Backbone:
């Protein structure tokens, strides 16, 4: 993993409002490369990875001449921030109340 990505992940983990992150390889079967936080462990982590990949692909499919750079999804309790690139998806789960 590139050093700048390692540094970014370390910085993310240090924020008290961050509940966890998940780094996913893009493809037909998204696979978790790295994660932090209990919310992204085991089967729940796999469900999050698949959901994030579907969300990005769905939004990207609706944009004919543009590409998604950053997405922010707010629920009643959390905020999911997604940063896609050609090879990876980085999703960060954040508690906006913190």
Residues:
């Amino acid at each position: 993993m590139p050093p700048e990505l390692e540094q970014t992940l370390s910085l993310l983990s240090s924020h008290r409002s961050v509940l966890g992150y998940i780094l996913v390889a893009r493809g037909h079967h998204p696979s978790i490369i790295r994660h932090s936080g209990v919310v992204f462990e085991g089967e729940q982590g796999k469900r999050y990875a698949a959901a994030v990949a579907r969300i990005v692909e769905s939004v990207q499919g609706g944009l004919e001449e543009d590409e998604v750079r950053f997405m922010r999804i707010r629920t009643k309790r959390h905020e999911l921030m997604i940063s896609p690139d050609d090879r990876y998806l980085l999703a960060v789960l954040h508690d906006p109340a913190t």
Remarks:
- Residues 42-62 form the longest helix (21 residues).
